[in-house]
Hints:
The chain is α/β, with parallel strands linked by helices. It has 3 domains: 3-45 and 67-116 and 199-277, 3-Layer(aba) Sandwich (Rossmann fold), CATH 3.40.50; 129-197, DNA polymerase, domain 1, CATH 1.10.150.300; 299-362, Roll (Ubiquitin-like (UB roll)), CATH 3.10.20.30. The chain is 41% helix and 20% strand. The strands form 3 sheets. Strands 2-3-5-1-6-7-8 form a 7-stranded mixed sheet, with helices on both faces. A 3-stranded mixed sheet has the order 4-10-9, with helices on both faces. Strands 12-11-13 form a 3-stranded antiparallel sheet. Helix 4 (121-147) packs antiparallel against helix 5 (155-172) and helix 5 packs across helix 6. The radius of gyration is 23 Å and the shape is flat. The relative contact order is 0.13. The protein binds adenosine-5'-triphosphate (ATP) and magnesium ion. Magnesium ion binds at residues 15-16.
Amino acid sequence: xxxxxxxxxxxxxxxxxxxxxxxxxxxxxxxxxxxxxxxxxxxxxxxxxxxxxxxxxxxxxxxxxxxxxxxxxxxxxxxxxxxxxxxxxxxxxxxxxxxxxxxxxxxxxxxxxxxxxxxxxxxxxxxxxxxxxxxxxxxxxxxxxxxxxxxxxxxxxxxxxxxxxxxxxxxxxxxxxxxxxxxxxxxxxxxxxxxxxxxxxxxxxxxxxxxxxxxxxxxxxxxxxxxxxxxxxxxxxxxxxxxxxxxxxxxxxxxxxxxxxxxxxxxxxxxxxxxxxxxxxxxxxxxxxxxxxxxxxxxxxxxxxxxxxxxxxxxxxxxxxxxxxxxxxxxxxxxxxxxxxxxxxxxxxxxxxxxxxxxxxxxx
Length: 364
Ligand SMILES: Nc1ncnc2c1ncn2[C@@H]1O[C@H](COP(=O)(O)OP(=O)(O)OP(=O)(O)O)[C@@H](O)[C@H]1O
Ligand SMILES: [Mg+2]
């Protein structure tokens, strides 16, 4: 389950700057194949102190962190959904992503051109949201045409048709699908459309150095406008992030952050938020061959979690041996945990918790 996030925004707001420092993080720890998939897709490793700690204890041959793919597309402009500018042809590239990173310019700098002549993140946000909604409207309309005839005879098609029309009305009111008050069962009917405004979104306020800690007036406006929309607002300075990404060592980066009054980098914050927004958990496998992090959705049972490694693990699942992260690091090894009864044997109904160290027994 490769998690994918797509970056959208107006031109020249700092999308690629952000993308590049995410990709730099990749270059530092490039222990996975196919790093660069396409020029505009970057694979980054998910920083996780727990994985580092486990690797220190187990000393495996290989450490494999979680990865996220980031897709940087060209800036969108007004009319993009009708083919204006470059961005439209790339909107398709973010159809398959799990979440949207929407970059908003929240810094004053006369040297950096704004396509609309002034800094106004609320106007910018609306332009992009509208373009995404129009693109969705287009997708929905096409599907309506496709199912309309069938809807007269087929029950499922009829329900799909009804839901599509509800969704259409919502979009026509200038609203994003994620704010539509539909039961999950209804959403299932339109799942395969990959509607852009249905995806969870993180608004990234790209600020100047002076505003990374306390924010600024633009950030306040963005927060107020997002309101109770199912979304996260992050304050990040892409410029500072690119400076952080250039520092060689972990210590140097921590020092730099501390000087600014920050305890974690924006990139970290972004990844953590993506996990939260998407309800994701991490579990670990810790063998001498490999210590590895795996991504699952909150609520996954042991067999489902095993299925992330290989479908055979899920099909032939017998049981799981589970050690809590805190026990593992306190006691120092799997054997030490076993001796004091801290290795739990769990069956098919066990719901995996964040940080669990799992060992699956299965037969194929
Ligand atoms: N926080 C910031 N403060 C000051 N300047 C910034 C900041 N973030 C980005 N910039 C500058 O803004 C300019 C545009 O950045 P970038 O190329 O990343 O934009 P973009 O959104 O990718 O544009 P496009 O859509 O055209 O690809 C660059 O010169 C970059 O250095
Ligand atoms: Mg760019």
